[in-house]
């Protein structure tokens, strides 16, 4: 069992499902946990439930240390208050797990703008609302870890999920950039793409559902959050006992120094059907370097990360 003694962790959306599992598992391993949840349904609408306090009670009854932070992640004030609650209670922050999420699925013709705002304010802006006040504290004790939550729906697409997918793919970009910027401060940033039985998934997985215990995902999240981990900037799919790296990759492509619209049209179908990976860029400049490599006269001028 990994040891998190001395570590302080925030887990958002920790009143139910995966977030609750993360909070319980961290506390069982010695972490002090700030349990965030405001008690809403899967669609983000309010309920009378107080799940954060319930999970705190579970942790304390098992001999752990936790406090509740029942503030919304959907606005700046809520994010700040969660970080403030953490520092007031424990005086430090080592781990941030951005787990809170809602789901409002519809074909794009039926999407309402209020659904766009509600989803992005929780998934994508919610991560910013925590990260902006938390960032400098994560590196204050020699390093820290962030685990953001993305989805295969964002990486690969799925019908009826345009709003959700947009937010989740935004999380991938945020994760990649912060991993680069956090390196010098000892802050590792990764994203989990969970596959688990949950309220949000409902009946999506059918007969596979009994195999998808949230504990399998929690094991991977804890591995990414542990201070001995060296992994950063990755998107990891986890579910049912399987772990997989999800990659953004580049193919060799088609090069023509006189490329115009006609030659582009002739090549485009083949280029977009090519599944042979030429590179897995570590940053944007790595992908741009594939263009530079097509020019022999620039052989000594490799593009560098910025």
From TrEMBL:
Keywords: Oxidoreductase
Gene3D superfamilies recorded: NAD(P)-binding Rossmann-like Domain
Molecular function terms, GO-annotated: oxidoreductase activity
InterPro entries tied to this protein: NAD(P)-bd_dom_sf, Peroxisomal_Beta-Oxidation, Sc_DH/Rdtase_CS, SDR_fam
Family: Belongs to the short-chain dehydrogenases/reductases (SDR) family.
Name this protein carries in UniProt: NAD(P)-dependent dehydrogenase (Short-subunit alcohol dehydrogenase family)
């Amino acid at each position: 069992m990994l040891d998190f003694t001395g570590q302080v962790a925030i887990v958002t959306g920790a009143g139910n499902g995966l977030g609750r599992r993360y909070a319980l598992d961290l506390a069982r391993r010695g972490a002090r946990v700030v349990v965030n949840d405001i008690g809403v349904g899967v669609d983000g609408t309010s309920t009378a439930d107080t799940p954060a306090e319930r999970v705190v009670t579970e942790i304390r009854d098992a001999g752990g240390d936790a406090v509740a932070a029942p503030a919304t992640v959907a606005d700046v004030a809520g994010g700040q208050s969660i970080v403030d609650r953490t520092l007031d209670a424990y005086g430090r922050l080592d781990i941030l797990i951005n787990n809170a999420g809602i789901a409002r699925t519809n074909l794009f013709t039926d999407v309402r703008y209020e659904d766009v705002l509600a989803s992005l304010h929780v998934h994508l802006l919610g991560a910013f609302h925590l990260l902006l006040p938390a960032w400098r504290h994560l590196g204050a004790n020699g390093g820290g870890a962030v685990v953001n939550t993305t989805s295969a729906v964002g990486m690969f697409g799925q019908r009826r999920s345009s709003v959700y997918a947009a937010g989740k793919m935004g999380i991938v970009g945020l994760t990649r950039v912060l991993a680069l910027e956090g390196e010098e401060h000892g802050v590792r940033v990764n994203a989990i793409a969970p596959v688990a039985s949950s309220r949000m998934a409902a009946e999506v997985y059918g007969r596979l559902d009994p195999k998808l215990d949230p504990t399998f995902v929690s094991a991977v999240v804890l591995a990414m959050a542990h201070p001995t981990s060296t992994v950063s900037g990755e998107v990891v799919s986890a579910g049912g006992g399987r772990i997989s790296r999800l990659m953004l990759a580049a193919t060799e492509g088609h090069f023509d120094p006189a490329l115009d619209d006609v030659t582009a049209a002739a090549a485009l179908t083949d280029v977009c059907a090519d599944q042979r990976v030429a590179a897995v860029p570590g940053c944007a400049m790595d992908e741009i370097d594939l263009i530079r490599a097509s020019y022999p006269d620039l052989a000594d001028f490799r593009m560098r990360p910025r």
